[in-house]
Design goal:
The protein has about 500 residues and is of the alpha/beta class. The chain is built from 17 helices and 23 strands. The chain folds into 2 domains: about 270 residues, Aldehyde Dehydrogenase, Chain A, domain 1 (3-Layer(aba) Sandwich), CATH 3.40.605; about 190 residues, Aldehyde Dehydrogenase, Chain A, domain 2 (3-Layer(aba) Sandwich), CATH 3.40.309. It is globular and about 85 Å long. Bound molecules: nicotinamide-adenine-dinucleotide (NAD). Nicotinamide-adenine-dinucleotide binds next to helix 8.
Length: about 500
């Protein structure tokens, strides 16, 4: 790979397309700090060319039989399953997450593809025989047409797969606008669809930045937008796309709290806090960033978390790097870009200045794999208070803040006062307390002794409050609903043996 850079283009009508803009952005390998490729940044005209490809394919794909559509999605699933290692490597090379974590990302995306293989069952309508005299009623769900998916850097394969398997299976055509930080996975997926037999134009990739996003949000040909990213952009996408008449689901940022009650198993809770706080270098929207320790457990719990945090191996997440060393995979890779690493590091400075206690300091990290990578070690703060910037802002890095509270009621109040409502977890052995928490907490996804409660594909993923704009969550039956529009058909067939006299009747029909 030394010195070679790849060119990452758009994907239109089943082929690569360079576009006509002369704007390109560098893509880096975060483990080495080296530029590994350049990605096209669409002009307005490029965006229109990609949308037109999806538009041309929409009618035929929407009328393709359920059997045929399912066969293509199933073939895609088989190819993805057999080549998942390749995709995981591509993710690690541009995102930085360790190989096993990248494989996990692919597996969770694959789950949604498997869910979408059941689309025939999911699209069955209702039928009511004899709703009124000689009248039957049935419902059906039709595809929308062209749908846009705009995804963040942190799951370059899984987040697009929350949406496109269901969208495509339901008969829509797709324009995916990936993050410009790790765009290669999208092209790999496009090629896989082609190999699976998807007709050209059904799945398209539009590379770029705000220019590409704005084109999708305002194009009259795009019927719906699924967005995942930070809260300010999610809000902007929701408002702009809604104003332009589109159906929108815009998933935003998070600040996920894990509450530990005094009766919890503290070893389990400490393991969970480290896994959920520092896995994928904290760059997960379901990462735990605040640990709420209900006294008197804080001293003991912080000590157990600190002990585990100090054992973590930080380094290049690629398998080659592992084989060259001691055969052990790094626990945590670098952050996605230098700018992001520096921003997260400045949050640590801010917490320290505000008076939080730095128990483990990630700023002194010794990473395996070179000084040029965008590394930051795991950082554990104790005695964080809700007025501090480290508590209020979404840091999106390997920084775990412990907030100490006196009671369950205080813990609940803290979680519910937060602007975000993506995920949360409670650790306890008290079933009654857990049940009360699940009823009282204003958060969309809840874990009971599970720190990262990402719902399985046949349930739906989404938060509350400023973690989601729009009201439909991703995948599961809500996803099927989002990517289809309902019709209800009322039919009257007169029984020839019992033909009524007919006649004029201007009143509103009463169902009898
Ligand atoms: P981001 O908001 O910077 O970017 C998301 C997408 O929006 C990208 O495709 C990007 O190109 C585009 N974009 C960026 N700035 C834009 C602008 N000004 N106008 C129009 N489009 C713009 O997010 P990110 O840094 O890539 O991802 C991290 C964020 O995503 C975090 O806040 C994280 O919590 C969130 N996230 C949320 C979920 C969820 O399910 N709620 C899942 C994953 C990530």
């Amino acid at each position: 790979m030394g010195g070679m850079t790849t060119t990452i283009t758009h994907w239109v009508d089943g082929s690569r397309f360079d576009g006509t803009s002369d704007r390109w952005a560098d893509v880096t390998n975060p483990a080495t700090g080296q530029v590994s490729g350049r990605v096209a940044l669409a002009s307005e005209a490029d965006a229109q060319a990609v949308i037109a490809s999806a538009s041309r394919a929409a009618q035929e794909w929407g009328q393709t039989s359920l059997a045929r559509r399912t066969q293509v999605v199933f073939a895609f699933r088989e190819l993805l399953n057999s080549r998942r290692d390749e995709l995981a490597r591509l993710i690690t090379a541009e995102h930085g997450k360790v190989h096993s974590d990248a494989l996990g990302e692919v597996a969770r995306g694959q789950e949604v593809v498997e869910f979408a293989c059941g689309i025939s069952h999911l699209l069955k309508g209702g039928h009511s025989d004899g709703a009124s005299t000689d009248i039957d009623v049935h419902s059906k769900r039709a595809p929308l047409g062209v749908v846009g998916i705009i995804s963040p850097f942190n799951f370059p394969a899984m987040v697009p797969m929350w949406f496109f398997p269901v969208a495509i299976a339901a008969g829509n055509t797709v324009v995916l606008k990936p993050s410009e930080k790790d765009p290669s996975a999208s092209l790999w997926l496009a090629e896989l669809w082609k190999e699976a037999g998807l007709p050209d134009g059904v799945f398209n990739v539009l590379q770029g930045d705000k220019v590409a996003v704005d084109a999708l949000l305002t194009s009259p040909e795009v019927q719906a937008i699924s967005f995942v990213g930070s809260t300010p952009i999610a809000e902007y996408v929701y408002e702009t796309a809604s104003r332009n008449g589109k159906r929108v689901q815009a998933l935003g940022g998070a600040k996920n709290h894990m509450v530990v009650l005094p009766d919890a198993d503290l070893d389990l809770a400490a393991d969970a806090a480290v896994n959920a706080g520092f896995g994928s270098a904290g760059e997960r929207c379901m990462a735990i960033s605040v640990l709420v320790a209900v006294e008197p457990v804080a001293d003991d719990l912080v000590a157990r978390i600190a002990e585990r945090t100090r054992t973590l191996l930080i380094g290049d997440g690629g398998t080659e790097a592992t084989q060259a060393g001691d055969g052990k995979e790094a626990d945590m890779g670098p952050l996605v870009t230098k700018a992001h690493r520096d921003k997260v590091s400045s949050f640590i400075d801010s917490g320290e200045q505000a008076g939080a206690k730095v128990v483990v300091d990630g700023r002194d990290v010794a990473a395996r794999g070179g000084d040029q990578g965008f590394y930051l070690g795991p950082t554990l703060f104790d005695h964080v208070t809700p007025d501090m910037e480290v508590y209020r802002e979404e840091i999106f890095g390997p920084v775990l803040s412990v907030v100490r509270v006196a009671s369950y009621a205080d813990a609940l109040e803290l979680v519910n006062a937060n602007d975000y409502g993506n995920g949360t977890a409670i650790f306890t052995n008290d079933g009654g307390a857990a049940r009360r928490f699940e009823n009282d907490v204003q958060v969309g996804m809840i874990g009971i002794n599970v720190p990262v409660p990402v719902p399985v594909a046949y349930y739906s993923f989404g938060g509350w409050k400023r973690s989601l704009f729009g009201d439909t969550h991703a995948h599961g039956t809500e996803g099927v609903h989002f990517f289809t529009r309902g019709k209800v058909v009322t039919t009257r067939w007169i029984d020839p043996a019992n033909r009524p006299a007919g006649g004029l009747e201007l009143g509103f029909p009463q169902n009898v």
